[in-house]
């Protein structure tokens, strides 16, 4: 399973093993999007009456896994020369919102993709054309 996770750009053996240990049983998540919330990569909310503020990431959950995903996405965006649809998506966010927010958004999406790969048993698809086929 870790070898399949390592097909994702930026994910090496340390990140794959840390993810496997942190998630442990993928069936405990109802859907893949819940993984990002458990790892603390979703924005915190403050709502009271008419006030509705969206803050920084919540930082609840496993800090080590959050750091590993942050490092994996940073290496994907900065060090990796091969383009994928995932890197293009993150670069569009970086152009609009800044590199740090793009890295956090990509880390959350990477956690979701890793969970889906684990559940489905598939490998990472480098282009959207492979997804359509």
Quick take:
The chain is mainly α and 133 residues long.
3D architecture notes:
The protein is mainly α and 133 residues long. It is 57% helix and 10% strand. It is built from 7 helices and 2 strands, in the order αααββαααα. It has helices at residues 2-5, 13-23, 34-38, 63-78, 85-97, 99-120, 128-132; strands at residues 43-48, 51-57. The protein has a two-stranded antiparallel sheet with strand order 1-2. Helix 2 runs antiparallel to helix 4 (63-78) and helix 5 packs antiparallel against helix 6. The radius of gyration is 15 Å and the shape is globular.
Beta fraction:
5-15%
Shape: globular
Low-confidence runs: none
- Report helical residue fraction: 55-70%
Widest sheet: strand ordering: 1-2
Determine the number of helices (DSSP H or I, runs of at least 4 residues): 7
Cα-to-Cα separation, first versus last residue: 24 Å
């Amino acid at each position: 399973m870790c070898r399949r996770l390592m097909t994702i750009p930026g994910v090496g053996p340390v990140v794959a093993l840390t993810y496997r240990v942190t998630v442990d049983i993928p069936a405990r998540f109802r859907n893949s999007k819940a993984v990002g919330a458990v790892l603390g990569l979703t924005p915190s909310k403050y709502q009271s009456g008419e006030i509705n503020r969206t803050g920084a990431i919540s930082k609840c959950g496993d800090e080590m896994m959050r750091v590993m995903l942050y490092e994996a996405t940073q290496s994907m965006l900065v060090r990796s020369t091969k383009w994928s649809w995932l890197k293009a998506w993150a670069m569009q966010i970086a152009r609009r919102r800044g590199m740090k927010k793009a890295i956090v958004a990509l880390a959350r999406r990477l956690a979701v993709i890793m969970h889906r790969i684990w559940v489905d048993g598939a490998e990472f698809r480098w282009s959207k054309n492979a997804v359509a086929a």
